[in-house]
Structures are given as C-alpha cells and as structure tokens.
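> example.struct
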C-alpha cells in the first residue's frame, strides 16, 4: 500500500484550512478526522461527549482503518487527524503505514478558541499531551523528527510554509492549491460542525481571520490547561521547519536595483 500522508494536530490549530488546501491539489484522496469520528460516534467510541447519539453500525476504529488501508492500495491518501483519536491503537505497525507531519499552534491562541466551542473540553481534547507523545514515539522509532509547521507561519506566510512542508513531506508544491472559491464544505462535516468551520466556508485561501476570544486568565480551567500544554508545545516548536528569512524593504529595493 502507499504510505498515508498524515497531518497530526490539535483542535483549533488551522488544520482544516490546511486540509482544504490539500483537497485543492487533486493528487490526494483526503480524509477529515476519520478516527475522530469513531472516537466520538463509533460503536467502540472512546468519548461520552455525545453518548446519546446512536452509533452507525458500520462505524468503528477497525472499519475506518480497514477502509484507509484498502484505498491506500491504489490511491494517495491524506489524513488530517488528532493524536488523541488514535492514541489507543498507535502501535509501531499502525504508525509504519504513514508519512507523518505535525501542525502546532500556540496554546494561548488554541485553547481560548477551543473553549469558545467546548467550555468543558477534556485534557485529551486539548490535545498536546498525546500530540507530543506521538511525536516522540515517531522520533524514537525513525531516528529523525517528522516535519513540524506552525499555525502562525501558515497564516502569515502560507506560500513559504507550504513550500517548506511539501519539500519535507516529499510531495510537489502546487501554487494553485492555495486559493479556492468560498462556499459549502460538506466534505469536512461528518458532524454538526455549526460555527466550527464558518470562517473556512467564507474563505478563499489561507489567511488570518479577525476573532475575539477569552484570555487564558479567564478562568482556572484555562490557566491549568495552558500550563499543561505549554511544555509540549515548546518541545514541538523546537523542531519547526525553518522558513527563508523575510527580506527587509530596503534590502528588496537594493536587490531590485542591483538586478537592473
């Protein structure tokens, strides 16, 4: 089977716009959090958040994994997923089927965004402990760190960040994939996404959106979550892909003059 290109992230980390960019490429069959769907709604679900919603009889972790393996026999697959969704099945054999990459976001920004939707989020749903554990396991197994990109780089410098990602992941860079038409996003709505993806529906590319969320010191739960996530975020941040330096305006004008 073809190795599955995976982007492991936390919730509210700009991972869905990244996934939408991957969908524009046309050379990958893309999956939106397939294990996370089983985590919340499968017959063997791990979460009780929506325990009152009946499980589809054909949705389970094994069913998701068997479908991905089957389709990877003939297609190039891209999966955007949360590490906490697969923590209980992520043995070496499972991990060997993927090309791994990571997207991280400063928990000072990620946690208030998550709190805005789920004020009762759990430690697992905050995501950083299982994300760091997965990263360390891959590093130990492979002897090298997988590619890491940051939400800030992705939003502030999308072209350079995705070029660096593509080079590190071994896939061609496709500039046209960075823009798209606004509209419905049914492909990523296996649950009632509500306002989770409102900005993506109105977007035409990867860019910052104006948002206002509560501060980390809003309550003790957020502060405790931030303190718990920060060390793991900083450990992953140390491995982020290096982007080319930004030329100052004077340097750029001098370079243009020298080229004449």
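> example.seq
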């Amino acid at each position: 089977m073809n190795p599955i290109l995976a982007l492991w992230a936390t919730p509210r980390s700009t991972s869905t716009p990244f996934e939408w960019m991957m969908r524009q490429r046309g050379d990958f069959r893309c999956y939106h959090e397939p294990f996370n769907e089983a985590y919340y709604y499968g017959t063997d679900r791990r979460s009780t958040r929506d325990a009152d919603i009946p499980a589809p009889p054909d949705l389970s972790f094994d069913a998701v994994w068997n479908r991905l393996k089957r389709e990877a026999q003939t297609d190039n697959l891209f999966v955007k997923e949360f590490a906490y969704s697969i923590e209980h099945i992520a043995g070496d054999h499972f991990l060997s089927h993927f090309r791994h990459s990571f997207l991280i976001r400063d928990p000072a920004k990620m946690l208030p965004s998550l709190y805005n939707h789920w004020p009762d989020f759990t430690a697992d749903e905050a995501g950083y402990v299982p994300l760091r554990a997965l990263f360390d396991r891959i590093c130990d197994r492979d002897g090298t760190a997988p590619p890491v990109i940051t939400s800030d780089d992705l939003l502030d410098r999308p072209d350079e960040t995705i070029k660096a990602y593509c080079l590190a992941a071994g896939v061609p860079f496709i500039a046209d994939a960075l823009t798209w038409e606004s509209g419905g996003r049914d492909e990523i709505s296996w649950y009632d996404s509500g306002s989770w993806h409102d900005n993506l529906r109105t977007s035409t590319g990867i860019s910052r959106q104006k948002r206002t969320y509560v501060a980390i010191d809003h309550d003790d739960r957020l502060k405790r979550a931030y303190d718990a996530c920060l060390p793991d975020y900083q450990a992953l941040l140390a491995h982020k892909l290096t982007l080319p330096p930004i030329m100052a305006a004077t340097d750029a004008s001098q370079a243009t003059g020298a080229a004449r």
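> remarks
The first helix runs from residue 15 to 25.
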